[in-house]
Amino acid sequence: MAGFTYEKNLPHQKRAIESVLSVFDRVYLKNGSRDENPEIVFSGSLKADNLQKIQQINGVSDIALSGSNVLDITMETGTGKTYTYTKTMFELNRVLGIFKFIVVVPTLSIKAGTKNFLQSPTLVEHFRKDFAGLYGETEIKLYVVESQKSKAKKSSMPSEIVRFVETDDTQKIHVLLINAGMINSDTMAGKDKGNDGSRLIKDKYHVPFEALAAVKPFVIVDEPHKLPQGKKTWKNLLKFNAQFILRYGATFNNQFENLLYRLTAVDAFNDDLVKGIRAFTEQIDGDNGERIKLLDLDCKEATFVLNKQEFKLSKGDNLSRIHQAINDLFVSEMNKTTLVLSNGMELKKGDTINPYSYSDTVRDKMMRQAVRQHFILEKQLLTRNGGRIKPLTLFFIDDIAGYRDEQNQLSGSLKTLFEQMVKAELESCLKTENDEFLRQYWQTALNDISKTHGGYFSRDNSDKDEKIEQEVNEILHDKEKLLSLDNPRRFVFSKWTLREGWDNPNVFQICKLRSSGSETNKLQEVGRGLRLPVNEYMARVKDHEFFLNYFVDNSETDFVKKLTDEVNNAVVKPIEFIALTDELIEKIRTVYPDESKKSIRNKLADLTDDDDVFLENGFAQTRKLFPKAFESAGSLKNGKITRSGDKATKVKMREGKYDELKVLWETINQKALLQYKIGNEIEFLKLFTQFLRENTDKFTPTGIRTIQNEIRVENSRLTVTQIDGLHDETFESINTMDYPAFLLKLSQVALIQRSTLHQAFVAVRNTLDITKYLNEQTITKIQAGFDRWLLLNSFNAFEIGYNRVNGSIHPTKFTNAKGQPLAEINAADLGTQFDNEHNPLAEFLFESVFYDSALEQENMIDKQVREVVVFTKIPKNSIKIPVAGGSSYSPDFAYIVKTDLGETLNLILETKNVQDNDSLRQEEVKKIAHAQALFSEISRDVNVVFQTQFEGDKIAKLLNQSLLKS
């Protein structure tokens, strides 16, 4: 089976990687021995300046910088942290020549997952083939440090450490993988019994820490909240004497050093980088609020109270003695302060538990519902177009014996009940299913129910049962096999062992059949199922809104509130500026690059006084004028975390309405290819040369510069002012690549002929001496800059056109493969906000109002226009108009209008929540022009008018204007 298909250059991952690289902008590299990393040297205040600039660009300047060598990147669970730091290693190797990294993980389970990822053949192929030769034949060579089998041998120096330290193969990226427990071992400190100092690394070191420090490593820390500063592991980690420590995690507990980039849970949910969450909570009516309270305990006996009656329990006693609803829950351990139950839950004096949470009735109901929902998911995901998706369901249990009932010897065991539920559900589904593949897939499962599930528990590591070994290997190490449609296994059982260090993108359900114990981070609990799924071809699917079903018992009725609060409270409150400072202007310009400092000041002139201090509500008005500059401070969108039973996630299509829309809908769903009307390579050369001439000041030379700063006392605070001279004589150029290598890499990345590149650089040599800028940053800036230049100069410097492609139109967001209208679609495809106070106009295609902006909402509910026959919001990602530079564009509404004179108007509408065309960014103006060009081409067959609606424009007026145009 094919391995996972990795996506390159995902925006949120790319920003994290670029943020790390930018720390080392304009550094000096000092080379030492061949088996060591080059030493990174910063001049003057360059490091601090780079860090401040990165923080401003990424909107994290509210977090104070430190003088340490620790760089922090926070990315929410499920957004690809491991891939991000892996590609960062490739980029640091490519740009700076760093080739030795130490990856530190907190636990063995995370270590196993990281090992599998870094050794994946598909990852090797991804970096070798998917980047147009950018990394050449470079690949990762992994060294895994394991605990020593025998301590009695004369020398116990780990061989992997020896090989890692001594290698001088700079053509590979060498990664030493080590867990926290191993870092804290006597072996690493050179103190174990077998280390008598006779075996030396590089004829010099007998202590592993010292040998590793000698290679000047870069250290990467995964899950930094589990390795807190000041504790033993962190103190030992510092013995690596790393040049830099890169920490990647979703949780930092606000213990940041130098925060470079922050992708919060809010960002991840709102940008559809992870699944949404749908919670299923069991609610028990009439339990009268009964709670069992731990009143007292010592090392031998615990005192519980229920309804004023006391119960004395010792180690091994079952809590069923206290309440009949409880089954198979007993006292496991206790001391004077803490009692541990058999499910891992820790209780302190005064803690309470709900007895009904441990009732078999509740457990069975949750399990039955999870099984039923699973097969509903299978029907949805295995009959979809664009590649089938195999869903998995993860059960967390504490009844391991009841699950490992291999011979079905335990009457009414968990395993027996579960298999009965699966069998009953499959038989029920097969009675009404007509899809041929699904029938065969379900019949295979029904033929041997035992193969539909598997489990992994910590004790399985020492189990010699061949069947269990196969299950464990498949669950832990072979994601591809687990996701194969030839494999009937779709249910996985565990006792929280898989809570960290393991994930599978196709986990669509998590069912907590027993409480997880002490109060934990809710986002971490659901983390095993947050990743976006992959289809049968192992490609990530992101053009659809997916949800993780999460089943919890009645003891967690506030699960949704706690999770939502946790996500929103993690958002750092935005800085409230009291004046229009240079920092605020740069914050705005980062998101609005077409705005100059002068234009921003002019627009805000009425909001500030003569000293640039904001007048009353001045800053609030600034946020309205430039909303995108402050978006990171937003909160979780509605609908990203819901309860089962909350408002339906589907919206119904009104019967018969689609027929009137059919011709227009099929017309605009035809595929089209963008054509650059550039006559020949000579004309293209002229365009590229023009781009270079207009951007000569955008490139960064390779070299080292001395920066001079003045420190003064102002208003009882130290302030730093940079001193610049008119003639900078402190810059020294350093070449990092020769001209032919530069041309080759730029040609591969930008997809421009080398001869054309050379001719262009020769043509501009009087104003841009490219030999001063032969570095990776220049290659990146030319590629990204030229793409944007093509978009901004389309229709002026060159024309574009569209060629329609013949092919199947259906299925679409509105129709099935036969072109028949769907009964309902995903509401999230129409908008993230729901209007539960208004019904849509009678002509609207759908029965409910889902929208993304106030202007869209107004169009759906305000002032009926008699001539409109039908109109609709165009779903997200349904129509993508290709535009110059490689991106795409999607309009918002489609209208069918018929006049009394028999005229028919097909209108495509783009809504913009700004005052007029002058308020649009240049990119938006150009994208709209592309849409007009495409619909002009389409109008040769079907008359289609494209119109832009601005704030204050009424739809009736726009329709009249469009009728006149048509």
UniProtKB/TrEMBL annotation:
SUPFAM superfamilies the UniProt entry points to: P-loop containing nucleoside triphosphate hydrolases
Any one Gene Ontology molecular-function term assigned to this protein's record: DNA binding
Keywords: Hydrolase
Type III restriction enzyme C-terminal endonuclease domain mapped to chain residues: 844-948
Entry's EC annotation: 3.1.21.5
All residue ranges annotated as the Helicase/UvrB N-terminal domain in the record: 11-253
Organism from which the protein derives: Kingella kingae ATCC 23330
Gene3D superfamilies with a match to the protein in the record: P-loop containing nucleotide triphosphate hydrolases
Pfam family for this entry, one: ResIII
Superkingdom, taxonomy of origin: Bacteria
Protein name, per record: Type III restriction-modification system EcoPI enzyme res
